[in-house]
Amino acid sequence: MWIETDIYILLLVVIETLAIYAKDLDARGGDRNVTVKRRKGSRGRRPKPNWLGERTIKIRGKDIKYDKRDSPHGSDPTEVKIGIYINTFYSISEQTMDYSVNIYFRQTWYEPRLAKKDKRKKGESGMIKLADGMWSQLWVPDTTFRNEKKAAFHDVTIPNRLMRLYDDGKIWYAMKLTVTLSCPMNLAKYPMDTQFCPIMIESFGYTKSTLYFNWWDTPVATEDHLEMPQFRLIKSHLIDCSQNYSTGAYPCLQINFELKRDLGYYIIQIYMPSWLIVILSWVGFWINVDAVPARVTIGLLTVLTTTTQSSGARSSLPRVSYIKAIDVWMSVCLIFVFSSLLEYAVVNVMSRKQTQSTSFNMNMRMRRKQLAGMIGSRKADNMGSGDESSGNSTKQMKATMPDWDGKRKARMIDKRSRKIFPCSFLLFNIVYWVVYGAIMKDTPPVMGG
């Protein structure tokens, strides 16, 4: 009995031991599988290409060892010539003081390491077009726009970049860009102003010891029929804007576009309506003084219209601290129409005061004549009722009796206003257009280094 129990216990121990061993084998087998997979994965990886340092590039069917980190001329600075071709100007904004331009940006420099050493064969071109993306494998100038707010390359339908290589090692690199650039504006003569909007081309990381900029023979070229809604491109001014920073002296070239604002839109939309409103305010000088509703309506209508027009004309302008030409114009027009309204107020008050005084004197004389002509007791008895009726008549005559002297003075003021107001407004126009159109000059902002 005891022997059977011991055998039973021994069998249980052996079975449990075998189960533990089997679990251990499974665990080891799983680890091996994982290890093999990782090794296979690691063997399948390809090292990333190293774009830095010396590498082999293929130019004209030949392999050339090239390091894009080295300057083309070693320790000597490289000359980079710059030119732009303007496709369109658009979105010239006074509110944000910037403008957008679509250009072809062109750069040329010499790369002696890529110059053709053997002679050119007969019928062979002296220039080749490099493949797209080659600009990322060669040394290129790190040009940037110092006053740039936003810029974008064009990739429709292919990347709009072009790189050519000549036999002597000259590289011609062009790209199509749309750039939004800041343009500090002086609006003191607005809308008779001329703005100078710059484009500043600077090296971002290379100092003058590595490269320097020069202009092309034709630095700025434009479309034959370049048009803008409110401006005309007069000319382009070339400036050297190189500047010293804490890390060195960096080359920079600047183009100032002289943009003359067209006045036609503002004459039609602002100046002509203002002239008509001011002239309309003078119509009241030919209307009778007693026509209170007509003259008050004309005065209030012209004042409110001028105020509304003034707000609309300045809604698209920034809140600058100095006075603009449009501010002077609208303010003086408001003064003229408001003065016309005040002129009628003065005329009306003077006429009413004179009418009351004169009417009282006339009624007193009429009352005396009535009293002197009455005789007899019956007439004397009726004098009291006559006095009452006479008093009532006096009061009534005092309220309704016109005063020709007061009206004559009111008409005299209106007649003089008919000459004073137009002559004053004409004199203001002469001074305004001479000062802002001929005497005051536009000066370009100083943005160079």
UniProtKB/TrEMBL annotation:
Region called Disordered, residue ranges: 378-400
Record-linked CDD domains: LGIC_ECD_GlyR, LGIC_TM_anion
Biased composition range(s): Polar residues: 387-397
Assigned GO CC terms: chloride channel complex; postsynaptic membrane
Secretion signal span: 1-22
Principal place of residence: membrane
Topology in the lipid bilayer: Multi-pass membrane protein
Stretches assigned to the Neurotransmitter-gated ion-channel transmembrane domain: 270-394
Keyword Lipid metabolism applies: no
Top-level taxon: Eukaryota
UniProt entry keywords in alphabetical sequence: Cell membrane, Chloride, Chloride channel, Disulfide bond, Glycoprotein, Ion channel, Ion transport, Membrane, Postsynaptic cell membrane, Signal, Synapse, Transmembrane, Transmembrane helix, Transport
Family matches, as InterPro entries: GABAA/Glycine_rcpt, Neur_chan_lig-bd, Neur_chan_lig-bd_sf, Neur_channel, Neuro-gated_channel_TM_sf, Neuro_actylchol_rec, Neurotrans-gated_channel_TM, Neurotransmitter_ion_chnl_CS
Limits of the Neurotransmitter-gated ion-channel ligand-binding domain: 65-262
Family: Belongs to the ligand-gated ion channel (TC 1.A.9) family.
The protein's name in its UniProt record: Uncharacterized protein
Organism, scientific name: Owenia fusiformis (Polychaete worm)
